[in-house]
Structure formats: C-alpha cells, structure tokens
Amino acid sequence: MAGSMADPELARFLADLNAQPLVPAAEVGAIALRAAAEERAAARPPGPEMHTVVDVVVPPDDVPARLFRPVAGPVPLVVYLHGGGWVIGSIATHDRTCRRLAAASGAAVLSVEYRRAPEHPWPAAVDDTLAALRWIASAPEVLDPRTTAMAVAGDSAGGTAAALASLRARDEGAGMADLQVLIYANTDLTNSGASMQTEGHGYGLDVADIEWFNAQWVPDPAMRRDPGVSPLFALNLSGLPAAIVITCEHDPLRDQGEAYAQRLRDAGVPTTLRREPGMVHNFLLWDLVSPACARAADRVAADISTALSDRRV
Q: N or C end of the chain, less CB within 10 A?
C-alpha cells in the first residue's frame, strides 16, 4: 500500500489521508465536495506570474474560461479541461496547475469551466470542450497574436472530455486539435482493468467514489459502454490527433488509460505513453505535497512543449 511507496513525502501524505475516516463521495454530495475543493485551492500559494491572465467566455453558451499567456508573442495553445469526476473542479481549483503548465511548457493555456454533473450530465462537458476548440479555430480577437499549434488536454475526467472531443471533432469535421494530452484519464466508464482492484484503495482515489462519479455523469449504466461516453469502446480511432497518454503506477484508472494508448497506436495514431512510477491520481494538484509530484507535472509540460514546438503532431 501507500506506505511502501518510494517517494517519502507522498507516502506520508497518503498515510495521513488514509488515517482519516473514509467518507464516501456519495455521502458527502456534490455541493460539499465542490466547496471543499475550492477551499483547498484557495489555501494553496498562487502559481507563477503570467504575462497576461484574461477571463473570457466561450460562445455560443458563454462557458467561462481563463486564458493564461506566459509570454508575449505567438505561442502554442493548450485547451485545458480540469479533473474532478465531472462533478467538482473549476477554473479556480486548477488555476495554479494551469499557471505551472503555462510557465513550464511556454504555451498559453485556456482553462475551460465546462458544465458539471449531476446538473449537467453527459454530454455537456464534451459539448463545451468542442465549443472551445471550434471557437479557437474561428480566430477570436482575444487570441491575438495567433497561436502556432493547439493541444487539447485534461486530467482525469477532463482527459475523458479531451479524448471524446477529439473523436467528435474528427467525425464532425471541425475543431480538431494538433495534439491530445490525456493525463490519468477515464477511458472506460465500465471500470474494467485489474488496476481497479489492485490500486483502488489507499492511493487517494477509491473505486467506490469512481463509480459514484460515473453515475453522476452517466446515470444509465447501459450507456457507459457507448463510444461517445467511453472512448476505449470507439470502433475507429484512426485519424485522431497525436496523443500523449500519462498513467500512474498507483491509479485505479491506469489499465484503461494504457489500453486506450495501445488502441491509438494500433490505429496508427502517433502516441507517447508514460506510466509515472510511484505516482498516484491527482499528482498535478499535489506539486506542493511532494517534489516527485512536481517533477511528474513538469515532465507533462515538457512533453507538450516538445510535441507542439517541433510540430511533429
């Protein structure tokens, strides 16, 4: 379990977490979970200073977004979708994460506050992601100077939105990014894979909570095998943007993420897969908990920078 992890700071953090009474997400509820996430984010020190930070709205439904530009002049753009089980998370909870990503990658980051479940179940988050991609393609004035390349990226549930929006952009012929970045993403809402059992307790993300989050976003269990919900079940993955897939050794979602990366490769999509040794779900948010988490987050930024600047996507 967590006590045997190689990184001592992360092991201590998880030991303290596991020493507390486990209250299932279902008992806490969406409103309280959101409030707790916002409080944790507010208590963290701010991230790196940016050249500009601008709050914008994405048409046609005025979805809030925040544009972090690390430097002046044309740079790549990352459309970022926060994690949180499609239920929690916001621009505010991921402000520090997006600032760190922008500073380390040299790319501008557009953080999108997509609509959340249970008030807005599937496909609202995917619709909002696709709307952001199409809006960027329309060259809005706020993106002056023009970006040089575009990625769509997300962690956890946000990674699911990134993957599903990439599929829809391909099929609908609008809004295709140059790169998709899936960071410990859900790709199979039926929760298959041995890691759901072997890594599903004691590492900060419990299987029971995953099941509850899935049910908030897709209440009908039969729908969770739909390729529009679980990208792992898509029949055709060819023609998608190049992919960076990041999984964690101690994450219940590890196996489904790696299965999706293999399917992308089998379909001829250039795909970089890295399993972060010793890492757990949510490491992007835990850079202050553990230097190892911070280094893992910086590796993601370096991957994005290399892929977009080299235009090998």
A: N
- Residue range 209-232, pLDDT digits in tens: 999 999 999 999 999 999 999 999
- What domain range is 32 assigned to? 2-309
Tell me the CA end-to-end span of the chain in Å, nearest whole number. Answer: 38
Dihedrals phi, psi of 277, to nearest 5 degrees: -65, 135
Taking alpha carbons only, the member of 164, 208, 169 closest to residue 185 is 164
Instruction: Judge whether residue 2 has pLDDT over 50.
Output: no
CA dihedral 161, 162, 165, 166 (to 10 degrees): -150
Answer yes or no: is pLDDT of 296 > 70.
yes
- Tally of helices (H runs) and strands (E runs) in the chain: 10, 8
pTM summary value: 0.96
* CB-neighbour burial class of residue 144 (10 A; exposed 0-12, middle 13-18, buried 19+): exposed
Burial of 220 from C-beta contacts in 10 A (0-12 / 13-18 / 19+): exposed
Report the number of distinct structural domains present in the chain.
1
Taking the CA of residue 125 as centre, how many other CA atoms within 13 Å lie in the half-sphere pointing to its CB? 34
Which residues are part of the catalytic machinery? 156, 251, 281
CATH of residue 38's domain is 3.40.50.1820
Predicted pLDDT at 19: 96
Query: What residue type is assigned to position 62 of the chain?
Result: D
- Structural element, H or E, at residue 276: strand 271-280
pLDDT digits (tens, 9 = 90+) for 36-82: 999 999 999 999 999 999 999 999 999 999 999 999 999 999 999 99
